[in-house]
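Inverse folding, one chain.
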């Protein structure tokens, strides 16, 4: 069944469903809330009961079946959402975006549908993809069932290598009990469209197995839905290629194969574990608790469902299964600053000497990084004072799965004043001291996409500044060390190469600066050489402002290989502050991003957004995302190609604009990345800063400053101390002991 070809009449199915009155009107922010477990179940039940879809359970069974892969919220169109939020219009109907795998048909494909209205769905309709066609079945994301079959196929195929593996590693695939081998797969799965063949890195299954490659990599073709037709195409062992399992096994049997013998892993203090080892010089006490965050008078923010309020800020948020955190209706002082801020994609492109390393180009939306939001540890991942929220995903499962404590919210002392001044009298005294403590509210989640952990933050500051930040941590993607590998990274252990890679993250920022009609300009300085007006014959060299309005999309696409102008300004041309300036927000990048591939190279087509520090486009409903969950397995001809967003070169003056932001960094792994990459120095992001948007710093509304004035200058022996908070914050102790569960289970 090719659903995109179904007539609309078939897609809109009639079913009688009475709608009862609600007990109380829900918060307006709930139009952006993730689907509840009840809604996810209703969507699945509705689709499973449609005979024309012929759906089977997701778990178990063959790959050649029709199944539900993903269900998540389909956000309302912006126009209808604003009509409801601002003008009292009708509440937009809630709909689900679903991804269906149609494998049990002559032309298998992947199709997306909108299902609704919720909570009692009675119709579905096709969702057109940017390319206007169904996604080929070979480009679908991996499923748990395919991994199960892949493991079985791999273990069977390399059975003749069991003597080699046992001799070299002490581990195996057959009857291995606690000394088993496992694998990590890399992507994309081939060199061009139509392929689904994956390089598998064989590893010893110990704690931190990502750092324990066995020296063997296997190329396995699994394009056919029937695993009986899968086959090993090539192998790489300890720097040499082999055309078949038999060739490698015979080479070992003849004694012609140089074995890479791995040392026996210790029972304790394995180098890839977190167990403490060694001591700091100087006797620093690390057995005692360090500094903690506290809320002596209770929480200063409000969390109601998916609405978050803090100081002048208010916003709605969700955690979508496909790509992660998404903010909506972001306001300061009641005025909307942005309609949407969201993570779009995170990629890591590698280089190496082994085939798996040179093939690795991870695009993490294709691995459902939003649904990789596992439990946050109180006191480690978030302060003990944080509010924790669960997430529910329906991804590759036969019902909703609860991910406990997947998000957290907390107020954070920044450790530096938001602003301060000491006004010296230059005679040993002072006129006054004033300071305002630095605080920010943090909304956080994580994505553990196999080896890497991304920590995603949005921070709200009381002066109207918003920061988006991502920290990279977790295990490096490492391969087996060979001397040739040093050109592509660092040797970080006896048999381990940390491979060079570039991380890039893409964000969507749908700005509404004092309204939705905005313009974009860049600003920097140029030096001028002028006659000195107060000294005849002299010259003055000084900076002056250089403004450059960007009137069309091509002019507003700033290439990644060149420095971007330092001021990126979004303003409302019709609204001005008290001092006559356009009301403006500045986008400020914190990034060390560089290109990942030459422009136009094969896989680069799947990440054309990575060509730009920033690209500014007119907002269109049919351009909701810069990437897709299908780009990973089909980067050569992806259904979403970001370059098409700017190809028509539309005018962007006084329009509803979207800023597409790329941030990232080059990572050359080093010995200190063992056992894990640490967060300091591995964070990138951007700020949204008011730039003549207000008449003054809006944090003057805070009641947290301290002002000290001498009553008897210049002696300064009697002081007036003014503050608007209690003189003492009180005790700062959280009585609950540490607890952690770590499970995520179907409901």
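Residues assigned per position:
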């Amino acid at each position: 069944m090719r659903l995109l070809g179904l007539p609309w009449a078939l897609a809109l199915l009639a079913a009688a469903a009475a709608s009862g009155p609600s007990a109380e009107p829900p918060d307006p922010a709930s139009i952006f809330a993730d689907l509840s477990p009840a809604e996810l179940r209703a969507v699945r039940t509705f689709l499973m009961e449609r005979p024309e879809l012929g759906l089977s359970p997701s778990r178990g069974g063959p790959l050649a079946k029709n199944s539900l892969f993903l269900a998540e919220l389909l956000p309302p169109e912006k126009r209808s959402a604003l009509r409801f939020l601002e003008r009292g219009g009708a509440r937009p109907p809630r709909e689900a975006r679903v991804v269906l795998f149609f494998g049990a048909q002559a032309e298998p494909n992947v199709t997306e549908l909108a299902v609704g209205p919720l909570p009692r769905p009675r119709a579905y309709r096709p969702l057109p993809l940017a390319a206007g066609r169904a996604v080929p079945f070979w480009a679908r994301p991996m499923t748990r069932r395919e991994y199960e079959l892949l493991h079985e196929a791999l273990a069977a195929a390399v059975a003749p290598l069991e003597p080699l593996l046992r001799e070299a590693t002490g581990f195996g695939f057959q009857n291995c009990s606690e000394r088993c081998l496992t694998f990590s797969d890399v992507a994309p799965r081939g060199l061009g469209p139509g392929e689904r063949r994956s390089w598998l890195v064989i590893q010893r299954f110990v704690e931190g197995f990502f750092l324990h490659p066995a020296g063997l990599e296997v190329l396995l073709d699994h394009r056919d839905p029937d695993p009986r037709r899968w086959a090993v195409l090539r192998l790489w062992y300890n720097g040499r290629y082999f055309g078949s399992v038999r060739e490698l096994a015979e080479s070992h049997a003849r004694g012609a194969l140089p074995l890479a013998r791995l040392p026996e892993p210790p029972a304790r203090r394995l180098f890839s574990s977190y167990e403490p080892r060694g001591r700091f010089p100087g006797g620093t006490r690390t057995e005692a608790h360090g500094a903690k965050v506290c809320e002596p008078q209770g929480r200063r923010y409000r969390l109601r469902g998916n609405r978050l309020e803090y100081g002048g800020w208010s916003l709605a948020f969700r955690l979508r299964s496909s790509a992660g955190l998404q903010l909506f209706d972001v306001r300061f002082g009641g005025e909307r600053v942005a309609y949407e801020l969201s993570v779009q994609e995170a990629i890591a492109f590698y280089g190496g000497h082994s085939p798996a390393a040179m093939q690795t180009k991870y695009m993490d939306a294709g691995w459902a990084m939003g649904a990789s939001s596992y439990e946050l540890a109180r006191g480690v991942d978030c302060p003990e004072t944080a509010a924790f929220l669960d997430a529910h995903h329906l991804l590759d499962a036969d019902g909703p799965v609860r991910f406990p404590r997947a998000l957290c919210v907390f107020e954070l002392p920044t450790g530096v004043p938001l602003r301060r001044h000491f006004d010296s009298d230059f005679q040993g005294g002072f006129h006054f001291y004033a300071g305002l403590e630095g605080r920010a509210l943090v909304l956080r989640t994580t994505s553990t996409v196999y080896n890497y952990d991304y920590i995603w933050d949005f921070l709200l500051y009381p002066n109207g500044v918003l920061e988006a930040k991502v920290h990279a941590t977790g295990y490096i993607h490492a391969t087996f060390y060979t001397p040739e590998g040093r050109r592509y990274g660092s040797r970080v252990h006896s048999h381990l190469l940390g491979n060079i890679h570039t991380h890039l993250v893409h964000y969507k920022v749908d700005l509404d600066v004092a309204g939705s009609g905005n313009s974009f300009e860049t600003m920097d300085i140029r030096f001028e050489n002028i006659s000195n007006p107060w000294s005849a014959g002299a010259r003055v060299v000084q900076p002056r402002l250089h403004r450059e309005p960007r009137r069309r999309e091509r002019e507003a696409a700033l290439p990644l290989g060149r420095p971007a102008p330092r001021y990126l300004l979004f303003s409302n041309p019709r609204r001005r502050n008290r001092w006559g300036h356009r009301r403006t927000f500045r986008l400020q990048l914190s990034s060390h991003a560089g290109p990942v591939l030459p422009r136009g190279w094969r896989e680069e087509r799947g990440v054309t957004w990575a060509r730009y520090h920033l690209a500014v486009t007119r907002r269109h409903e049919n351009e909701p995302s810069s990437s897709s969950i299908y780009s990973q397995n089909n980067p050569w001809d992806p259904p979403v190609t970001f370059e098409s967003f700017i190809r028509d070169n539309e005018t962007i003056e006084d329009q509803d604009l979207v800023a597409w932001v790329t941030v990232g960094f080059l990572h050359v792994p080093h010995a200190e990345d063992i056992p894990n990459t640490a967060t300091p120095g591995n964070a990138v992001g951007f700020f949204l800063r008011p730039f003549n948007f207000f008449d003054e710093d809006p944090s003057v509304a805070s009641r947290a400053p301290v002002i000290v004035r001498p009553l008897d200058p210049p002696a300064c022996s009697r002081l007036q101390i003014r503050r608007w908070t209690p003189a003492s914050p009180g005790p700062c102790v959280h009585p609950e002991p540490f607890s952690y569960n770590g499970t995520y289970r179907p409901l």
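The chain has three domains: 28-127, 144-254, 301-531+538-701. The first helix runs from residue 8 to 11.
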